[in-house]
């Protein structure tokens, strides 16, 4: 056996690397909760550096006002009474929750590059993880709950490792009265989607359904297999959150970002930004020429990230562990 094969690489293995980041940020407790319950809530002092959550809230209110012509009413929720959702074609009304936020300002780039968020995403989905979508939920008083479901876009049974994960910035107070997210603790270990009879969000049924309670600025993180939904909001005002839906690059993303990121965005961010925004994804080509071009582009961005990182110089394969 050659020395190159027999000797361990001087580069850090991805697991060793991510555990170093976990210790650096002091989030060991949250990793343990994530493994045990399928979700965890990282508090504002860790999740929202430099007032990130406050600035995100102002930014999404501005985006919503610019798109819809009216500023969302945080105090009463009158602008979002009832449920309209994101897609006008499905609801017969203007969408009230913006999608595609990455291009709406540098604050959203900062939200993606938050070191604590990236550590959680890397732990769940590896260093090749990509942004599938970044949007916003604005939820006013309503009468219907959001049924239990899981985020992994595959039929049951599911693999135990996360293929997708959700990292949600909580921008207003979450509790049951405010229509918070609901989880079934430990459901990620069942490796299946809920059946129809199991989808009701209620504290009276057989399932142990927990309403999230946390202050603005928290980061809500969960495994793609975890069963979750939402309670209806009975209090006045709006529940506002910005979810970053992340995926392994083998999963089809909600937003198609390959080749869509302006060079100035790439230039002002670390090399990993290109990986996160799908620039190293070579599949989806339209012709042999496109295949070659996308492959060369993907390798360029991958090499730049590996060179910048300096701890995984064994090749692109290290990203996919």
Please, could you describe this protein's structure?
This protein has 321 residues and is of the alpha+beta class. The chain has one domain (9-255): Sandwich (Jelly Rolls), CATH 2.60.120. It has helices at residues 3-6, 14-25, 28-37, 44-47, 52-68, 88-91, 106-112, 115-125, 263-267, 272-276, 288-309; strands at residues 39-42, 130-134, 137-139, 146-149, 164-170, 181-183, 210-211, 219-223, 228-230, 239-247. Strands 1, 2, 3, 5, 8 and 10 form a six-stranded antiparallel beta sheet that branches. A four-stranded antiparallel beta sheet has the order 4-9-6-7, with no helix packed on it. It starts with a helix and ends in a 12-residue tail after the last helix. Mean pLDDT is 90; it is low at 1-10, 87-92 and 314-318.
List the helices and strands and how they pair.
Blueprint lengths: L2 H4 L7 H12 L2 H10 L1 E4 L1 H4 L4 H17 L19 H4 L14 H7 L2 H11 L4 E5 L2 E3 L6 E4 L14 E7 L10 E3 L26 E2 L7 E5 L4 E3 L8 E9 L15 H5 L4 H5 L11 H22 L12
Antiparallel strand pairs: 1-8, 2-10, 3-10, 4-9, 5-8, 5-10, 6-7, 6-9
Task: Give the structure's gist in a few sentences.
This protein is of the alpha+beta class and 321 residues long.
Q: Label the CATH architecture.
A: Sandwich
CATH class: Mainly Beta
Question: What would you report as the Rg, rounded to the nearest angstrom?
Answer: 20 Å
Amino- and carboxy-terminal Cα gap:
24 Å
The shape, in one word, is globular
Unreliable parts = 1-10, 87-92, 314-318
Number of helical stretches of at least 4 residues: 11
Question: Helices and strands, in N-to-C order?
Answer: HHHEHHHHHEEEEEEEEEHHH
Beta-strand share of residues:
5-15%
Mean pLDDT: 90
Number of β-strand runs: 10
Please give the domain count.
1
Helix content: 25-40%
């Amino acid at each position: 056996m050659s020395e190159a094969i027999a000797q361990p690489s001087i580069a850090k293995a991805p697991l060793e690397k991510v555990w170093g980041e976990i210790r650096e940020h002091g989030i060991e407790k949250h990793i343990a909760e994530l493994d045990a319950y399928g979700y965890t809530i990282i508090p504002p002092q860790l999740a929202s550096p430099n007032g990130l959550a406050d600035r995100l809230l102002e930014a999404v209110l501005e985006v919503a006002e610019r798109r819809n012509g009216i500023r969302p009413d945080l105090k009463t929720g009158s602008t979002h009474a009832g449920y309209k959702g994101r897609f006008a074609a499905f609801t017969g009304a203007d969408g009230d929750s913006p999608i595609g936020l990455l291009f709406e300002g540098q604050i959203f780039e900062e939200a993606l590059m938050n070191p604590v968020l990236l550590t959680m995403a890397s732990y769940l989905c590896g260093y090749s993880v990509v942004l599938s979508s970044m949007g916003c939920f604005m939820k006013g008083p309503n009468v219907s709950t959001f049924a239990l479901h899981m985020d992994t876009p595959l039929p049951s049974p599911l693999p135990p490792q996360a293929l997708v994960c959700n990292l949600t910035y909580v921008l207003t107070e979450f509790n049951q009265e405010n229509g918070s997210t609901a989880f079934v603790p430990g459901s990620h270990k069942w490796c299946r989607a809920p059946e129809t009879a199991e989808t009701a969000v209620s504290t009276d049924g057989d399932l142990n359904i927990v309403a999230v309670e946390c202050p603005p600025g928290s980061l809500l993180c969960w495994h793609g297999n975890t069963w979750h939904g939402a309670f209806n909001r009975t209090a006045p005002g709006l529940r506002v959150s910005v979810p970053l839906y992340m995926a392994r690059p083998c999963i089809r993303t909600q937003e198609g970002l390959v080749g869509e990121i302006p060079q100035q965005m790439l230039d002002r961010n670390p090399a990993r930004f290109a990986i996160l925004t799908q620039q190293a994804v070579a599949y989806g080509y339209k012709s042999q020429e496109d295949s070659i071009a996308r492959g060369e582009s993907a390798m360029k961005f991958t090499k730049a990230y590996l060179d910048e990182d300096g701890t995984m110089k064994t090749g692109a394969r290290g990203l996919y562990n």
